[in-house]
Design brief:
It is found in: Nucleus. By secondary structure, the protein is an alpha/beta fold. The chain folds into four domains: about 5-80; about 90-140, no CATH class; about 165-210 and about 335-495 and about 545-640, Purple Acid Phosphatase, chain A, domain 2 (4-Layer Sandwich); about 215-325, OB fold (Dihydrolipoamide Acetyltransferase, E2P) (Beta Barrel), CATH 2.40.50. The longest helix is centred in the middle third of the chain and has 23 residues, at about 215-240.
């Protein structure tokens, strides 16, 4: 068991009574100080607010840790597995199907009271349409097994009422505060049609692939291609001759250049990767797909994650361990630019004032209800201020929401279309979006969206007709790269920042970025890929499954390896905004956490007046001449509480 000194090293100076409680937790759960610190970090992220480690909070932390421990124990119980395999016999109470149509047809469905009872029911009902209360129990009664061992019912969740949410409207962070926010709505605002031009920079039709039909050979080829293409880019970036590249798994008595993919041999999903677990995997073409363990002792600092493509200067004298001497900097990718004539056109479009954008990400309601109060409040604000564009990313109807899992919501049988969850979307989401008439709304799905026909990442668009969405709503893929006027936006609803934070292996030192958000976002930008992590974390690590279709992961690459001007990466991590590698990178946070209301982002962008004045070249030197957009100088971004 870890000593008090180990706890102090991880948690810092603490009161004696708190230290005693932490030591008790180490003894009860038989873990070390590092594992306990990871559990504390996960608890802080789950609560969605800044928490101090005092005696009051340590009590709730202990309760949460005990609950998670019990969940893990139940999941591992052989008796529970055997019971789930057989199926649990349901009782007649609260388990009937709609209209008793399945009576006696399935082993777990009880028969009704008999023909005479059924006849009396029909005569009494007068052939009326069944009530919503009856059909709302469908999801519970139609599953013989019921929710999994780690599931919490909505009644077990205590959330903060929306009207009592902390600091509504408070600005949590500001980027470029020197830029003034214009009075909204803009005077004489004509609507988005004359101010916003939408261009998709990806081939959306390619996202309509058949999910869950992955060929192993095709998937492995994608990984190989990524390594080989990275080697070509590194060679061009650093001007390295061909003979300097070698197979990292062979005996290398002298320092050479090796390229491969970081992998880990940690098998237990509950354990984090560490320095000792890292290996380098070569491509099949250059190294027969072999793996070699890494020795990072010569590096003053490092930061890696599984799936990261890297180039090292290294030696391998024994062919058993690769001694890494240095890490070669990744290739340089350039940002977008526009011709002077196109910039002039944008300047004319924005004659009425700045380009204004709202950015929000789901979940949009707390775990104890499906009222979507935060979403309604956001739409109220949008209707009031009339921004040019609104980015909304899923999940909207979240498959991980307790009430959605149980089917614990009423169904309006008078307007029932035959699609329960789609009707819920239209009732809660579409009805609010229809109030927005002067702004372009851009919807990005999530793999956790119950109304998405596409279940894997990369993910196809929502279906407009099925969800009743109006014409000012643009349906985007996940991920997606688009241009609004000349500003290029990249967005993905996959929580890559949180996933990278869970899987990252680092040691502080020279050249290693200390700001966590900056470092994680740079992984995405420097890889020119919206989801460079592989494999995706398991549900036991992040709380839900991220279904990645490896065969189609090329669709998640930045088109043409061009960096966007603005990168939107919604995450469970606290909302923030930073300029990373020349890209304005925004995490708006989630609109709702499990317990309380969350945050969203607002951005206002000045017209390119200064760019045109400073670089007014008439005529341009050639047809390919472009001006950089420099959004990092023109944009003000705020992270706000709803």
């Amino acid at each position: 068991m870890s000593s008090p000194e180990d706890l102090a090293e991880k948690f810092g100076e603490l009161p004696d009574e708190v230290m005693v409680e932490l030591q008790n937790m180490l003894r009860i759960y038989n873990i070390d100080a590092e594992d306990l610190f990871f559990k504390w970090e996960e608890y802080c992220l789950k609560m969605g607010e800044d928490i101090k480690l005092n005696l009051k909070n340590i009590t709730t932390f202990k309760d949460d840790a005990r609950e998670q421990f019990e969940i893990e124990m139940r999941a591992k119980s052989k008796s529970a597995q055997a019971l789930a395999a057989r199926g649990v016999q349901r009782t007649a109470k609260n388990t009937g199907d709609v209209f008793n149509m399945l009576d006696g047809l399935t082993p777990a469905t009880p028969r009704s009271a008999g023909p005479s009872a059924a006849k009396r029911k029909l005569e009494k009902a007068g052939y009326e349409t069944p009530l919503a209360e009856r059909t709302s129990k469908l999801a519970v009664g139609s599953s013989p097994v019921g929710p999994g061992p780690g599931f919490r019912t909505p009644g077990a969740i205590t959330s903060v009422p929306f009207r009592n949410r902390p600091d509504p409207g408070k600005v949590m962070e500001v980027y470029n505060p020197n830029i003034e926010i214009p009075e909204l709505p803009l005077p004489g605002y004509p609507g988005y049609e004359s101010r916003v031009q939408f261009v998709a920079l990806i081939q959306a039709k390619n996202f309509g692939y058949k999910p869950m039909y992955q060929k192993l050979v095709a998937g492995s080829q994608v990984l190989d291609d990524r390594i080989e293409e990275y080697a070509v880019a590194i060679q061009k970036e650093h001007n390295i001759p061909n003979e300097d590249f070698c197979n990292p798994c062979s005996k290398l008595p002298e320092e050479v250049v090796v390229v491969g993919r970081i992998v880990t041999d940690v098998m237990e999903s509950q354990k984090r990767s560490n320095e000792a677990s890292l290996l380098l995997e070569a491509s099949r073409g250059d190294g027969e797909g072999g793996r070699v363990r890494l020795d990072l002792s010569a590096l003053k600092g490092y930061a890696f994650y599984p799936g990261m493509t890297v180039a090292f200067k290294a030696m391998n004298p024994t062919a058993d361990k690769l001694l890494v001497k240095s890490v070669l900097t990744p290739p340089t990718y350039f940002g977008a630019g526009s011709k002077p004539s196109d910039m002039d056109e944008e300047f004319r479009k924005l004659a009425a004032g700045n380009f204004n954008v709202f950015i929000a990400a789901g979940p949009y309601t707390t775990d104890d209800n499906l009222d979507f109060e935060g979403f309604t409040e956001l739409v109220d604000r949008i209707v009031e201020t009339e921004p040019d564009a609104v980015f909304l990313s899923g999940p909207f109807i979240d498959t991980e929401h307790p009430k959605v899992k149980l089917g614990d919501f009423p169904v309006d049988m008078n307007n029932f279309s035959g699609y329960v969850l789609e009707d819920l979307f239209k009732e809660k989401i579409t009805s609010q979006l229809n109030r927005i008439t002067k702004s372009m709304v851009l919807l990005v799905p999530s793999t956790r969206d119950a109304v998405s026909k596409h279940v894997s990442f990369p993910q196809d668009r929502f279906q407009r007709k099925l969800l009743g969405l109006q014409s000012n709503v643009q349906l985007l893929t996940n991920p997606c790269m688009i241009a609004l006027n000349e500003i290029q936006f990249g967005i993905s609803s996959a929580d890559i920042l949180f996933h990278l934070n869970m899987q990252e292996v680092k040691a502080s030192g020279k050249g290693i970025e200390t700001n966590t958000f900056h470092r994680l976002a740079n992984y995405v930008i420097s890889s020119s890929h919206f989801y460079p992590l592989f494999p995706a974390p398991e549900a036991s690590q992040v709380g839900y499954t991220t279904p990645v279709d490896l065969q189609w992961m090329r669709l998640a690459e930045f088109p043409g390896n061009i960096k966007p001007d603005v990168l939107i990466l919604p995450s469970k991590l606290p909302g923030t905004v930073k300029v990373v590698n020349g890209v304005v990178t925004i995490n708006p946070g989630f609109m709702s956490t499990t317990r309380t209301a969350g945050t969203y982002a607002f951005m206002t962008v000045e017209p390119p007046t200064k760019i045109l004045e400073e670089e007014n070249i008439v005529p341009p030197p050639d047809d390919e001449f472009t001006l950089k957009h420099r959004i990092y100088n023109r944009a003000r971004v705020e992270i706000r509480r709803i």
